[in-house]
Amino acid sequence: MAGECRRCKKKEAEVYLPHSNLNLCSDCFLLLTERRVKHTVNAYKMLSKNDRVGVAVSGGKDSSTLAYILSSLFDKVDIFLIYIDLGVPDYSEHCLYKVNELAKIIDKELIIYSLEKDLGLRIGDFKSTIYGRKICSACGTIKRYLFNKISYDMGLTKIATGHNLNDTVEVLFNFYLEGNVESLLRMKPFLRRIHPKFVPKIKPLIGLTDMECLLYAEYRNLPIRTIDCQFSKGSRMLRRKELLNMITERMPTFMHSFMQSHFKRILPTLEAASKNREIKLYECTICGMPTSLKGAPCHFCKLISTLKRRA
Ligand code: SF4
Ligand code: ZN
């Protein structure tokens, strides 16, 4: 890339950010990326100084970037890395190796939950419970449940996840398409405690694109996985992401504008109109953890019972 860095005006520019029409050198890119994450954390008041935060790590570029930035910018906060080993052949061992390396680099404790050792199951076993859908829906339920349960049992005060701008816009876009108002109301950069056993969730990377997370991880030389999960191919989520990328190529500010107008304009209006529909959580009749289902087992316990019935 030709030309000097627009910020320092000293070094050669290496990164072009189309949404802000900026050419940056690697140092200025890293600095601005960290500032933007700090801005998101402060704008939504995501962290306070006595927080004990579990960072959900997967070996991917987003969660590695998140763990690195949080541990370097917020040194008053206690940080733990939590990895769920799903038992996907090759992939899970590869990711475990990467998160172990990351934990060493940032000097944080790594908590590992193995589906196989702790539950006697692998994610592939859940195929029979999903009635022709992608296994990712069961995987999402399992990971959400376990991250919350592990963090609750450890007395953590927040769970940080690596959802970035592309992920957030993809999910919002899907809820809009479905007209899924309940889920739109629940989808927030900072989901506060809505039940005593619900650990608040934060998404500090929602202002960064996929590409920015990847470049950050690469420039910092963070250990990130180089293979994909065998179940990821052909998902609807990937197709929607491709579509959004096509729009963004023509309109570089599309994703930023979409997210801004949702969180700043549409969500407050939806919240005001749905005052009587506040999100309620109940306790699972099997495990006692929070669930949106009244007088019934939570989605996780339902999956496990279905699997046991079929065994
Ligand atoms: Fe889970 Fe699907 Fe991701 Fe594989 S691709 S880790 S099954 S959500
Ligand atoms: Zn349950």
Mean pLDDT: 94
Write down the CATH class of the largest domain. Answer: Alpha Beta
**What is the annotated CATH architecture of the largest domain?**
3-Layer(aba) Sandwich
Distance between the termini: 57 Å
Helical content (DSSP H or I, runs of 4+): 40-55%
| Physical arrangement of strands within the biggest beta sheet | 5-4-3-6-8-7
Number of domains: 2
What is the assigned CATH homologous superfamily of the largest domain? HUPs
Number of helices: 11
Provide the structure class: alpha/beta
Which ligands does the model contain, each kind named once?
A: iron/sulfur cluster, zinc ion
Low-confidence segments: none
Describe the protein in words.
The protein is α/β, with parallel strands linked by helices and 311 residues long. Helix 2 (61-73) packs across helix 8 (210-219), helix 6 crosses helix 9 and helix 6 crosses helix 10 (254-273). The chain is globular. It has a 6-stranded mixed sheet with strand order 5-4-3-6-8-7, sandwiched between helices. It has a two-stranded antiparallel ribbon with strand order 1-2. The chain has 2 domains: 38-272, HUPs (Rossmann fold), CATH 3.40.50.620; 280-311, no CATH class. The termini are far apart. The protein has 11 helices and 10 strands. Helix content is 48%, strand content 12%. It has helices spanning 26-43, 61-73, 91-106, 115-119, 135-153, 165-178, 181-186, 210-219, 236-250, 254-273, 299-310, and strands spanning 15-17, 22-24, 52-57, 78-85, 109-114, 158-160, 190-191, 201-202, 282-283, 290-291. The structure holds iron/sulfur cluster and zinc ion. Iron/sulfur cluster (SF4) binds at residues 86, 123, 135-136, 139-140, 229, 231-232. Zinc ion is lined by residues 284, 286-287, 289, 297-298, 300-301.
